[in-house]
Amino acid sequence: MYTSTRDSKLSLTSQQALKTGFAPDGGLYVLPTFTKLDLEAILAVPYQEQAVQVLLALLPDFGEATLRQAVTAAYGDNFSDPQITPVHTVGETHYLELFHGPTSAFKDIGLQLLPRLLQAALAANDRVLILAATSGDTGKAALEGFKDVPQTGIATFYPDGGVSPIQERQMTTTGGQNTTVAAISGNFDDAQSAVKAMLNDHALQAQLSPVQLSVANSINIGRLAPQVVYYFAAYRQLVQAGTIQVGERVNFTVPTGNFGDVLAGYYAKQLGLPVNKFIVATNANSEVSDFLATGVYDRNRQFLKTSSPSMDIQISSNLERLLYYKSNGDSALVAQLMQSLADTGRYQVPADLLAAIQADFVGGKAQDTEVLAAIRAVADAHGYLMDPHTAVGYVVQQRLALAGPTVLLATASPFKFPQVVAEAALGEHYADGFEAMQVLASAYHQAIPQPLAQLADLPIRHHQLLQPAQMPEFVAQFAQEVL
Ligand SMILES: *Cc1c(COP(=O)(O)O)cnc(C)c1O
């Protein structure tokens, strides 16, 4: 049974946890203990079967038949690579490419599956409105995942001017009868805080009833659980390639914002995957990597816009789950730390908790100048294009140079950030993202992912700009229209 990071007396099924997103006390849903998987067995099967085994361990009450059906529908030819998440070794670097899904970022792994799981968990007369705050990639992946899924609607909010032009275009051209998108005046944390406030707004909930609100961000365990799978998939491919022996420990480098992706890796380790360290790579918004070095989380600093917008995040929600696990389920302590974060923007963990965290995680940050130089260096040396988020990981991985094989999570397609990548790799500035895509494709002999190539021709269907205070009314109106 799941419980809350802030109240270990709470107990609910994974279906209930997935439907509601996060706990009434503001905490996140966690499984207090993990049962190890049979490593040999999970390394013997392809991605989809690995997914069934992982999900059965993390979301047991869905049952194997439902999980298998959802997995089969979620990971098929909507991914352009049969491995779903192929490992691509270039020079010394093992890139785990997570961007072969319909929206070209790793968010597809969670968001192609979550709607199918949610649907399975809904009763016939349930209606759920999904709210998603996005720093760029979650929004489109959530829209695509929930588009025209019965009994659901999806409203996505992104910071105005805070996402790449291609990311914005992806969202504003979204089709479907149950989707809406709005830009918010403010940054990602403003959008995320406003979404959290709506989820705790009892007056709004009464107004919306019987429609329930839920979340598609990585605080939802239905997002997190599917991401655990690709750590096993990566390991399997390294074994198959002869890079490692079964049982050998590997490191994973994870470009990090909300700490969802890297936390999924930690779950994989708890399920028995042999991992040495997780390298947590941040851009100049380095609250998390600083925390890993000092034990002090402090968001009282300037918000910086970088070339990796999906990581321009100051409040890293999923870190709360790690605090819960590493304090051995001390939900009173977690509640106290989170209260301190809400009140003062800062908290400090006890020394023993920090030591426990540092046993598994090491942080580092990359400045934009280093990111651009790395994109260029790898493109020049190998003809391989990294997107700016992946390049943040690359810079930190190179600097730390840990012993043993290390897998770098490639979190987005370079074609999602074509202007930054073209400027870095070729030294040319393009005002038009679509032109930059074409130039990169021909210079590096790569195909532009089909959904991105088509974007230029799609009509823009969503062009709202809201103040955060206007969001509840916008949501109420949308719920009435579509649910
Ligand atoms: C969301 C995102 C990240 C950060 O992932 P978290 O789970 O928030 O840590 C990194 N890179 C890209 C491309 C993303 O879209």
Name the descriptors.
483 residues, alpha/beta, Rossmann fold, six-stranded mixed beta sheet, five-stranded parallel beta sheet, 22 helices, 16 strands, globular, binds pyridoxal-5'-phosphate
In short:
The chain is α/β, with parallel strands linked by helices and 483 residues long. The protein has helices at residues 14-20, 39-42, 47-58, 64-74, 107-111, 114-121, 137-146, 165-172, 188-199, 202-208, 221-240, 260-270, 287-294, 319-326, 331-344, 351-358, 368-382, 388-400, 418-426, 433-443, 450-454, 471-482, and strands at residues 2-4, 7-12, 29-30, 87-90, 93-97, 127-133, 152-159, 179-184, 211-215, 250-255, 275-282, 296-298, 346-348, 361-365, 406-410, 464-466. It is globular.
Largest sheet: 6 strands, mixed
Q: How many H/I helical runs?
A: 22
Mean pLDDT over the full residue set: 96
Please tally the β strands and state the result.
16
